[in-house]
Amino acid sequence: MKLILTAPVDKLGVAGDIVEVKDGYGRNFLLPAGKAIRWSRGTEKQVEGIQRARDAKAVRGLEHAQELRSQLEGLAVELAARAGDEGKLFGAVTPADIAVAIKKAGGPAVDKRAVSIAKPIKTTGSHNVAVKLHDAVNVHLPVNVVAAK
């Protein structure tokens, strides 16, 4: 079965790739999960749009990753979350929340999948967060979680 990936799939490819998979894998996993669409000549134009969107988000290489690192290193990221009186959060801070906070703080757009948290953030205060920009470039950011008003 020939499919066009719409999301990254481990050991298969990234969004925009045209792949050949076994019928059962495509029919039972990739298509229902929304990770792929069926290939046809008409969907070939969609591939170009998917690849353009992927290229716009992607870090374009080691030099670009180092530029992004220099932008992120001096950044003061503050995140407001609902919290109780003792500073305990109602829920937890997610990587998506941190990616949005980085953008609001004036930093570059970072993919939420690039943000990694050592342990779940469930309290207010300063926490260390790692952002993987490239295989060779990681940035450790202090994120200050404050109680929302």
Automatic annotation (TrEMBL):
Transmembrane spans: none
GO cellular component, as recorded: ribosome
Extent of the signal sequence: none
Pfam family, any one: Ribosomal_L9_C
Keyword match Cytoplasm: no
Segments forming domain Ribosomal protein L9: 13-40
Gene3D superfamilies documented for this protein: Ribosomal protein L9, C-terminal domain, Ribosomal protein L9, N-terminal domain
Keywords, comma-separated and alphabetical: Ribonucleoprotein, Ribosomal protein, RNA-binding, rRNA-binding
Domain of life: Bacteria
Record family assignment: Belongs to the bacterial ribosomal protein bL9 family.
Role, per record: Binds to the 23S rRNA.
Xref: NCBIfam families: L9 (TIGR00158)
UniProt protein name: Large ribosomal subunit protein bL9
Gene source species: Luteococcus sanguinis
